[in-house]
From TrEMBL:
Keywords: Hydrolase, Zinc. It comes from the Bacteria. PROSITE patterns: ARGE_DAPE_CPG2_1. Pfam families: Peptidase_M20 (PF01546). One of its GO terms (molecular function) is hydrolase activity. This is Acetylornithine deacetylase. The lineage of its organism: Bacteria, Bacillati, Bacillota, Bacilli, Bacillales. It comes from Paenibacillus nasutitermitis. The keyword Zinc applies.
């Protein structure tokens, strides 16, 4: 290795330190746009247009396109119906290499979760305090998107050319189990030899992600007053018993190790969250009888390798055991109705060659051994790992309060992330001489 090559990591680190203000400015620009996912519709267009403009100014080959205009979008096996994409474009950009190297795609989503109650500041007015940049989407996941763009800018401004292509995409509709924006990118032919998803990871490396389902569970009963000896069945009581079971089942699952290799090194709680309860006539000023129906909305996570049917069956059988009687013996059977797509868990093979590169660059940039483990959440990585040929790893910044008031990203972690991304681009794609 020549002296010039040995100095490249130092040049990269120095450039990033000198340009951390530009990094914060770029992220602040993205946060100022309302890109809240409205579940069926969204508000990403203006931000995506600005991002497209910024990518072109950077010198990237940038394209703005609409999912519904992509041939094969509806036919893709991961497509999920029922969304409106008439005004929600994706953005993709390419820094074309000189040839002969491997390509690398950074895939981020531009949409954010809803504005949670309790924000004490304007979520779209970013500000910095204690080296934290606050704003909706700063952590999940506009920070990682900005880091990927700054990493490409770093190498370009240092005059470093790569053999392989670097691609950066910003997709719509990932939150709330969307993933159709990611699907559209695959149908559109945006592909690479490897993918990095800049979701928040606190600088850990996640080669796997959990799956999950959001169901509305319904119990049905009878109502009225038993003036003539009628037997009433209050579905609220059945729902209450089911909720107690869910709490116990969540605790029992926490005692079991997950599948090898990415979840077997620890025991952890797989969330089962009751997200909403609904029963009775909410329009009536008073109710003096029980409801006819009771609905329990639940979010349930699972490990890779578990199907939607298997997860539902796990809950149905577990509820029977918990109750001490079967559905045939009169136990009220919960009805499961899907509210969003099922998100399958997914993983990358342990011998995938980008893994050691990223682990080594994390260690070099942070001074500590890289944490390589399964993600404690579900995301759109399954579109790549379950339905495509481009293995996707998850690596993003540190921060806090994702999907909550006061969301922030740690700026020091973003600086480190830009370094990791830039040096990994160099090693994976190959330097052009």
């Amino acid at each position: 290795m020549s002296g010039n090559e040995r100095n490249i990591p130092v040049l990269i680190r120095d450039w990033i330190q000198l340009n951390r203000g530009r990094m914060a400015d770029l992220l602040s620009t993205l946060i100022r746009y309302d890109t809240v996912n409205r579940v069926v519709t969204g508000t990403e267009k203006e931000c995506q247009q600005k991002l497209h403009e910024l990518m072109q100014e950077l010198g990237l080959e940038a394209e703005l396109y609409y999912p519904e205009e992509v041939p094969g979008f509806h036919e893709h096996p991961a497509y999920y119906p029922g969304k409106d994409y008439s005004d929600r474009p994706n953005v993709s950009a390419k820094w074309r290499g000189t040839g002969g190297g491997k390509s690398l795609l950074f895939s981020s989503h531009i949409d954010t979760a809803a504005i949670a109650p309790g924000w004490e500041t304007d979520p779209f007015s970013p500000f910095v305090e204690d080296n934290k940049l606050f704003g909706l989407g700063s952590y999940d996941m506009k920070g990682g998107l900005a880091a990927s763009m700054m990493a490409a800018r770093c190498l370009m401004e240092l005059g470093i050319k790569l053999q392989g292509d670097v691609l950066i995409e910003s997709v719509v509709d990932e939150e709330f189990g969307g993933a159709n924006g990611t699907v559209a990118g695959r149908a559109h032919g945006v592909t690479a030899d490897a993918v990095i998803i800049p979701e928040p990871t606190n600088l850990a490396l996640y080669p796997a992600a959990r799956g999950g389902a959001l169901w509305r569970v319904t119990f049905r009963g009878t109502t009225g007053l038993s003036f003539s000896g009628e037997v009433m069945q209050n579905p609220a009581n059945d729902a209450a018993r089911f909720i107690v079971f869910l709490e116990k089942h969540e605790q029992e699952r926490a005692d079991l190790a997950g599948p090898a290799p990415w979840y077997s090194d620890r025991k952890e709680q797989l969330p089962i969250i009751v997200t909403r309860l609904e029963a009775g006539d909410l329009s009536s000023p008073l109710c003096d009888v029980g409801p006819v129906e009771c609905h329990v909305d639940i979010w349930v996570e699972c490990y890779p390798g578990v199907s939607e049917d298997q997860l539902r069956e796990e809950l149905l059988l577990g509820y029977e055991r918990f109750s001490g009687r079967s559905y045939e013996q009169g136990l009220a059977r919960p009805e499961f109705n899907k509210m969003i797509r099922f998100l399958p868990g997914c993983s990358v093979a342990p011998d995938f060659p980008l893994l050691p590169i990223l682990a080594e660059e994390i260690e070099s940039a942070t001074g500590r051994k890289a944490e390589v483990t399964g993600a404690p959440y579900a995301c759109d990585a399954f579109v790549f790992n379950e339905y495509g040929s481009s293995p996707a790893l998850i690596l993003g910044p540190s921060g806090g309060n994702a999907h909550a008031p006061g969301e922030f990203v740690d700026l020091d972690s973003l600086v480190v992330l830009v370094e990791i991304y830039a040096t990994s681009m160099l090693r994976w794609c190959g330097r052009s001489t």
